[in-house]
Amino acid sequence: MIKLKSDEEIECIRKAGEIVSKTLSLIGERIRAGMATYELDKIAKDFIIKNKAKPAFKGYRGFPRNICVSIDSVIVHGIPDKKTFLKEGNIVGVDVGVEVGGYFADSAYTFSVGNVKGPAKKLIQVTKEALYRGIDKAKAGSRLGDISFSIQDYVESRGFSVVRDFVGHGVGYELHEDPEVPNFGRPNSGVRLESGMVLAIEPMVNEGAYYTEVLDDGWTVVTKDGSLSCHFEHTICITNRGPDVLTKWQKEMC
């Protein structure tokens, strides 16, 4: 069931979104080659708690850390640890969820470690642009499939693929709500978008084929062919004036 949010509730979600955005900005300032992914998790946790909020991922369905850190061929849900170190040339997807006063927001950003060139740089650019193309279609009166098709059409026209097994979602009262927001689909299909819907739009784009595999830890999702993957995400609200991004990034960080 899709739950519409009031103006007051949307402002509460925006407060959570601001902390998400600031957390990602801080990670963008600190990320460097040689860091253990656990360090990024600690930076995020400390900042979120300092701002009187809660990391939404910790303990969610048993997830063991505060954020997700996904390197190169890891699509989503990478678990930070003390044994995995960032290297020059890595692309690193960082997914952050925050709860403030019972309201949730969620955003992801893929960072470059050092100088990233060629296909990896193009993959990042295309995935970010796909996110904004999807957001542009998130208008009251349109349909969910308009968002999905816009993302898929752009990504595939650039020679990449969109992941099918994992999708965006509603968010706000809970971390994951209805509806699912696929990154593939047909225009003018799916539910009608209404003012007050809050959605997490999150293209996950692979350099190679869209097939995925979950590792033995039960969380880490990788590309089946070992190709690079990229992930960007915003929490947005549908309004009669157009889409309202509730997790606006402080700056472009890649």
Automatic annotation (TrEMBL):
Q: At which positions is substrate bound?
A: 77, 176
The record's listing under Pfam families reads: Peptidase_M24
Which EC class is this protein assigned?
hydrolase
Instruction: Report the GO terms under cellular component.
Output: cytosol
CDD domains attached to this UniProt entry: MetAP1
Cofactor, how bound (note)? Binds 2 divalent metal cations per subunit. Has a high-affinity and a low affinity metal-binding site. The true nature of the physiological cofactor is under debate. The enzyme is active with cobalt, zinc, manganese or divalent iron ions. Most likely, methionine aminopeptidases function as mononuclear Fe(2+)-metalloproteases under physiological conditions, and the catalytically relevant metal-binding site has been assigned to the histidine-containing high-affinity site.
> Is this entry keyworded Protease?
yes
EC code: 3.4.11.18
Q: Does the keyword Metal-binding apply?
A: yes
What's the catalysed reaction?
Release of N-terminal amino acids, preferentially methionine, from peptides and arylamides
* Cofactor(s) the record lists: Co(2+); Zn(2+); Mn(2+); Fe(2+)
What PANTHER family would the database entry show?
A: METHIONINE AMINOPEPTIDASE
- Relate the assembly described in the record: Monomer.
Assigned protein family: Belongs to the peptidase M24A family. Methionine aminopeptidase type 1 subfamily.
Its name, as the record gives it, is Methionine aminopeptidase
Could you tell me which species this protein originates from? Candidatus Aquitaenariimonas noxiae
Q: Please state the gene responsible for encoding this protein.
A: map
